[in-house]
Design goal:
- The longest helix has 24 residues.
- The protein has a single domain, classed as HflD-like (YcfC-like, Orthogonal Bundle), CATH 1.10.3890.
- About 70% of the residues lie in helices and about 0% in strands.
- α1 packs across α4 and α1 packs across α5.
- With about 210 residues, it is mainly α.
- It is built from eleven helices and no strands.
Length: about 210
């Protein structure tokens, strides 16, 4: 993929916000939008996408995240600080990941191996989340300060929820790497806030979110 557009950057950044929102929802209530979670999870196995949109299976696959991004950009005083904190942490970890060829290659190899297991065996969601959680712990948690997820202790202590939260965070890392590859930067995020908001609004209106 090359010649990235502002739409590409908004979609990728929307993927980061979508993942952060999923992690927050699971931590708070023990549940989240299942179809949105699946859309984000499947981005981890799209190894040769034709476009940024294709990574998410179409704009609809990241519509919730783009809408969340838009709300953060248009309503600065009312923005969700918790989601913002998770997004900043995900972008930071993605930067660290991209600086290590060994880590990037290891993460890719782990995901390819899991994809092959999915092709040959009927892996239930729980098994997939457990294995993705392990990949996150081994490939991402070791890169720097861990993301401290806040929520209800009852939900956070549930192994299935913990695995889904790490899976969501891994999806956030994938989207953050994509955002960087599409020309996104923290400095650019500040300077291009208005342009990003306009593009996000166009996408939200298009998808009807």
């Amino acid at each position: 993929m090359a010649n990235y557009s502002e739409t590409d950057r908004v979609l990728a950044l929307g993927g980061v916000f979508q993942a952060a929102g999923l992690a927050r929802d699971i931590a708070r209530s023990g549940t989240c939008n299942a179809s949105v979670f699946t859309s984000s999870r499947e981005t981890l196995f799209n190894f040769e996408p034709e476009s940024v949109e294709h990574v998410f299976g179409g704009v609809q696959g990241v519509a919730v995240g783009v809408n969340t991004l838009l709300l953060q950009l248009e309503h600065v005083r009312q923005r969700d600080l918790e989601i913002s904190r998770y997004v900043v942490s995900l972008l930071h970890l993605a930067d660290r990941l991209m600086k290590s060829d060994t880590s990037m290659q290891g993460l890719h190899s782990d995901l390819v191996a899991l994809a092959r297991r999915r092709d040959h065996f009927e892996l239930g969601d729980g098994v997939q989340h457990e294995q993705l959680s392990t990949i996150y712990q081994e490939r991402i948690s070791t890169l720097g300060p861990r993301i401290m997820i806040r929520g209800e202790p009852l939900h956070l202590q549930n192994p299935d929820n913990a695995a889904r939260i790490r899976t969501a965070l891994l999806c956030g890392i994938r989207a953050a790497v994509l955002w960087r590859q599409a020309g996104g930067s923290k400095f650019g995020l500040l300077l291009r806030r208005r342009s990003l908001a306009v593009t996000a609004r166009e996408l939200v209106d298009k998808t009807g979110r």
